[in-house]
Write a structure and sequence with these properties.
The chain folds into 2 domains: 68 residues, Winged helix-like DNA-binding domain superfamily/Winged helix DNA-binding domain (Arc Repressor Mutant, subunit A, Orthogonal Bundle); 97 residues, no CATH class. Helix content is 32%, strand content 22%. β5 and β6 form a beta hairpin. It starts with a strand and ends with a helix. The chain is of the alpha+beta class. The radius of gyration is 19 Å and the shape is elongated.
Length: 185
């Protein structure tokens, strides 16, 4: 399965990006979004929460806000992949694709990351036959059975060598094109 990263096409994300670029603190507020999109502040707040739930924006802690900003502040989260690049989907967890971050991503390139499906256009919708379909907490997941063990990716990101080695061996076996492209360990 292959997808094209198209970034966010949501009008709220686009508005937030424009406001963020002009802001003195690099952030934006629900009221700024509401004004920019000509919607009420309640709707703006709901839309920003939705961006947050998709991992595309985060609310800044009140203690970190500048004192002159009374409205809550948000910022967009930078994603470790490149717009208009194709990515092989390594697994699907609910509404998120598991892909490898760009090799050049700092500080952690070539790492498995979850990114909301909304950010992608499907290029090839064929799911690998070796994916195991599971359901957990009402979400449908598709992945290798080896990767579906509780805590597998937490252990990977905690740097447990045995798990990292297993991931890269599986990547080489099941996703040889991506493995070859990345020339990973």
């Amino acid at each position: 399965m292959k997808v094209l990263f198209t970034k966010e096409t949501d009008p709220v994300w686009i508005a937030a990006k424009k406001i963020e670029m002009q802001s003195d603190d690099g952030c934006f507020s629900p009221s700024e979004i509401a004004t920019f999109l000509d919607i009420d502040q309640y709707e703006s707040s709901i839309k920003l929460q939705n961006l947050g739930e998709r991992g595309l924006a985060a609310k800044i802690d009140n203690e970190l806000q500048k004192p002159n900003k009374k409205d809550e502040r948000w910022c967009l989260i930078s994603l470790p992949i490149t717009v208009n690049n194709e990515y092989e989907v390594l697994a699907i967890f609910g509404d998120y694709y598991l892909i490898l971050s760009d090799a050049s991503a700092k500080p952690f390139g070539n790492e498995p990351v979850l990114i909301h499906t909304f950010c992608f256009k499907i290029i090839d919708s064929d799911k690998p036959t070796f994916w195991q379909k599971t359901s957990e907490y009402g979400e449908i997941n598709y992945c290798l059975s080896e990767w579906n063990k509780p805590g597998f990716f937490e252990d990977y990101h905690d740097g447990i060598e045995k798990v990292k080695d297993q991931f890269w061996k599986d990547l080489e076996s099941y996703f040889p094109d991506t493995w070859q492209e990345r020339k990973c360990p």
